[in-house]
Design a protein that fits this description.
Helix 6 runs parallel beside helix 8 and helix 20 runs antiparallel to helix 21. It contains 22 helices and 21 strands. It is elongated and about 90 Å long. It is of the alpha/beta class. Strand 4 and strand 5 form a beta hairpin.
């Protein structure tokens, strides 16, 4: 077993990094990262700084945290001296200083923090190589044993040259353990046999071939000895990962693993499967991935929703990409034009936006996670909430239809003040499918054991006092409530009327050009704009505070409406009917304008999306209206 394994304390995850610009003369900008997830995915163009950032992470290996003034000064002076001697050709980011008391620090570790402040950073690099490994037939037993021991050290450095050697040693042990004259204790013999069975299954899963053995005792793949099998670069890389997965089970669990463009030489399916297996083993550690692979980004963020986040690297500066990674996709796909070309290619034969959106309207809504502080919907919510905060008091908010808790995560990213200091957050969602992710989001801000997430009415009302909520937020929620249920959802016996303060507010946030269609209820969806909302709540325009996003391209799309809690008493079947009538008229007018514009030939993808949205909106509101009238 790797000698340092027992000295590690789990879990091991970098939670924050605060680096000044051009640290160690590596050319990166200022780095400010906090609340880092378990899987950090970094994308950006060549030369943007991804590899340099990963070099900083790798330089933390074996280093301690929280240096004192003397230790910090010594490291900085050593780096400065190094630069004065070699600065024309290299950076000093990997220069480190050790002390007699066992402490060690590097430039990049000085202002990095883990979830446990008393442990050393344990970082393993998984940089692959297409160079042929050593031929095991040229090694003696001692050399084979040494290669096997090296493969157990975290990372690929000890695996690369000894990939074939490890496979040979594990197969040899199994063969000897199963021999009729084997003198090993039965338990030890069984372990050696099972060890090879596990390795064989792993190799077969990744490469589709059995590990065989010829008459000369050589391990074979595809019927040929390993060193003579003429394996492709991709096959060699998969074997390297297979050996690492098998040999490093324990150390993979609680180490920081670094992957720099792991997609090199690998098919997307094999890449995603391999990284998924590693991530599933790395339960108490952290993974950093720099990549140009769109399939890898999509696969990992989907498989590890809530544990993975995408960051954008541009010009030496890193930032959180959030749930709208347009700039990352534009960069990876060669610009917006190529991105749209890929979108059309993927959407074949329903390539047009109208067809795509309309077909999506046959499916239930998808709950989104991973909102960022730069999300336009979050921005309008922040403005509305901060305008309600009173000095020395926290704002009590009910996230009605909280889903995966993306709103809380996004608010926590905003500013230097902890969200728990100004926001008293309560989550409610009767759909329990994403309850665990919502609880995780709450624990990230409020700690474990926080009783803030509820999925049924009685539990919520037992825990939350009547008339105690300052603001109830319905973000992308109202359109998912069936119009037939509107009167009951806002009645005097409803959750909203029960928990809101008399002087409280209802904050309704919607995207008025939904990019993805959905069928949230029997009528699909109905998005109420400001005019129908006024009719819905039976109030004048002066009684409602509305705000639009300032982000280019979203000015009219993203809107938030702050409605007095007292207005909920006005919601009746009659006001719902009037709101639907106005909604029908507005969509009908918009469709007429779009058709007129189409005659000029000046339409594009967004016009197709708008046509699809308002066609569905008009049809859905009409169907609901007919149901009301009947």
């Amino acid at each position: 077993m790797y000698e340092c394994e027992e000295s590690r304390t789990i879990p091991m995850k970098i939670t924050s990094i605060h680096h000044s610009a051009n640290l160690g003369s590596d050319g990166l900008g200022k780095i400010e990262l906090k609340r880092l997830p378990r899987i950090v995915i970094i994308a950006g163009p060549n030369g943007s700084g991804k590899t340099r950032l990963l070099k900083r992470i790798k330089a933390m290996n074996g280093c301690d945290q929280n240096p004192n003034t003397v230790q910090r000064s010594k490291v900085e002076q050593t780096a400065k001296n190094y630069l004065s001697k070699f600065g024309r050709y290299r950076s000093s980011i990997d220069q480190s200083i050790g002390w007699q008391n066992g402490k060690k620090y590097s430039l990049s570790s000085l202002d990095a923090h883990a979830d446990n402040p008393n442990i050393k950073f344990q970082v393993a690099s998984f940089t692959t190589s297409s160079s042929p490994p050593i031929d095991p037939s040229s090694q003696n037993p001692t050399q084979l044993k040494k290669a096997t021991e090296n493969a157990m050290k975290p990372g690929l450095e000890g695996v690369l040259a000894g990939t074939f050697s490890y496979l040979t040693k594990i197969q040899n042990r199994s063969r000897e353990a199963s021999h009729q004259y084997c003198q090993l204790p039965p338990k030890d013999a069984e372990e050696h046999v099972q060890n090879f069975v596990d390795l064989h299954l792993l190799v077969k899963r990744l490469l589709g071939s059995d590990l065989g053995r010829n008459a000369d005792g050589e391990v074979s793949l595809y019927g040929t000895p390993l060193a003579k099998a003429n394996l492709s670069n991709g096959q060699l890389v998969l074997l390297q990962f297979a050996v690492a997965l098998h040999a490093q089970k324990a150390s993979l669990k609680d180490s920081i693993l670094v992957f720099d463009e792991p997609e090199n030489h690998l098919h997307a399916e094999s890449l995603i499967e391999t990284l998924t297996r590693i991530a599933e083993m790395n339960t108490e550690g952290q993974i950093w991935i720099a990549t140009h692979s769109v399939p890898l980004i999509a696969g990992m963020t989907a498989k590890f929703d809530g544990d993975a986040a995408l960051y954008c690297m541009e010009g030496g500066v890193i930032s959180y990409a959030g749930r709208r990674p347009e700039r990352v996709l534009n960069s990876l796909l060669g610009g917006e034009e190529n991105r749209e070309a890929l979108r059309r290619f993927i959407d074949l034969p329903t390539r047009h936006a109208f067809q795509t959106f309309s077909s999506q309207c046959l499916a239930p809504p998808e709950v989104i996670s991973g909102a960022s502080a730069g999300d336009p919907q979050v921005e309008v919510i922040q403005r509305a909430l901060h305008g309600r905060i009173k000095e020395d008091e926290s704002l009590r908010v009910l996230d009605f239809g909280s889903g995966k808790g993306r709103l809380l995560d996004a608010l926590a990213e905003e500013g230097s003040q902890s969200v728990s200091e100004w926001l008293d957050y309560i989550a409610y969602d009767p759909c329990t499918g994403d309850a665990d992710l919502c609880v995780k989001a709450i624990e990230r801000s409020y700690g474990e054991g926080s009783n803030r997430s509820f999925s049924n009415r009685s539990d919520l009302l037992d825990a939350v006092d009547k008339g105690s909520i300052d603001v109830a937020i319905l973000c992308n929620v109202l359109h998912e409530i069936s119009p037939l249920d509107w009167p009951s959802e806002f009645s005097d016996t409803s959750i909203l009327q029960s928990v809101l303060k008399p002087e409280g507010y209802l904050l309704i946030v919607e995207d008025y050009l939904m990019p993805i269609g959905e069928s949230a209820h029997d009528f699909g969806f109905v998005v109420l704009e400001k005019e129908p909302l006024l009719a819905f709540f039976g109030i004048k325009a002066s009684a409602i505070e509305s705000a639009c996003s300032d982000k280019p391209g979203y000015e009219r799309r993203i809107q938030a409406h702050l409605i007095p809690a007292t207005a909920l008493e006005n919601v009746t079947r009659k006001t719902c009917l009037e709101a639907l009538k106005i909604s029908c008229r507005l969509s009908k007018d918009t469709l007429a304008n779009l058709r007129a514009r189409a005659k000029t030939g000046g339409t594009g993808y967004k016009d197709g999306l708008a046509m699809a949205f308002h066609t569905q909106q008009f049809a859905n509101a009409t169907l609901a209206l007919n149901e009301f009238e009947n």
